[in-house]
Amino acid sequence: MTHNTEKPTAMETLLSTLDLEPIEVDIFRGVSPQVGWQRVFGGQVIAQALMAAQRTVERERLVHSLHAYFMRPGDPSVPIVYQVERIRDGSSFNTRRVVAIQHGKAIFALSASFQIEEPGFDHQITMPDIPMPETLLDEQQIARQYLANAPAAIRKYWERERPIEIRPVSLTHYFSDKKLDPVQHVWVRATGPVPDDRLYQASVLAYLSDMTLLDTSLYPHGTSIFDQTIQVASLDHSMWFHRPIRFDDWLLFTQDSPSASGARGLTRGSLFTRDGVLIASVAQEGLIRKRANE
């Protein structure tokens, strides 16, 4: 960590938010970094809820899947209380349910399953042939070349220090209303060290898994999450952890949106290491609704 006189880095701040305070048996309290947003980032709530669940399972039992629902927007100005229910402790699998509470109401619920590590059949899909991150613009270059005349919401997004750096293969949807195929490829990388601890590694991966997904479902409609005429929000989120995670290099987040209907968009994602190892799969449905006054 940095010295007390220095400002914590974005990654140090994220890791601090994952260090939940135990306040009773199977009850934890988490805080949100004060970064000026009106609501808590969904990935933070997923990550904190997963950490709460992991804290109630033996360390050799590792998360292999989670399924979650967002019910209300989180208030970043007050702590979030996470209540864990021990659904089942079996010989190979454990199941936990976590409810996140603010102002006396549930804002989020997560179910997670844990398994002892064991050998078995092994196959995976092939990583697509995508330009390497070193060939793409970094966030500072994007800011210099594109942000001078960009809308304020886009400037704020790119200029704020984040624990996860992103390098999209294409920037078209940020600065154009062109209708695109519902496919997106984004390189992601931790901006600081992540502990060599499977609990923190899984939670940080869960945190970043909520980044950029909603955008992909908007590609065919020539808009983005920064469009003030639409209302966007994560509704549910599922994730499967396939293989061990490391954060010492870039990860490729490939995404596609097979459907949008009923004011909802569905996006699927795969997370690969640079050398093509599939470490996790993601699926999310989000609200994409035209605002009533438009």
Task: Characterize the structure shown.
The chain is α+β, with helices and mostly antiparallel strands and about 290 residues long. It has one domain (about 10-120, about 135-290): Acyl-CoA thioesterase, double hotdog domain (Porin, Beta Barrel), CATH 2.40.160.210. The protein has seven helices and twelve strands. It has helices at about 10-20, 40-55, 140-145, 150-160, 170-175, 200-210, 215-220, and strands at about 20-25, 25-30, 60-70, 80-90, 95-100, 105-115, 165-170, 185-190, 230-240, 250-260, 265-275, 280-290. Strands 1-2-4-5-6-3-9-12-11-10-8-7 form a twelve-stranded antiparallel beta sheet. A hairpin with a 2-residue loop joins strand 5 (about 95-100) and strand 6. Helix 2 (about 40-55) runs antiparallel to helix 6. The protein is globular and about 55 Å long. The termini are far apart. The model has no long low-confidence stretch (mean pLDDT about 90). InterPro entries: Acyl-CoA_hotdog (IPR042171), Acyl_CoA_thio (IPR003703), HotDog_dom_sf (IPR029069), TesB_ACOT8-like_N (IPR049449), TesB_C (IPR025652). One of its GO terms (molecular function) is fatty acyl-CoA hydrolase activity. Homotetramer. Its EC number is 3.1.2.20.
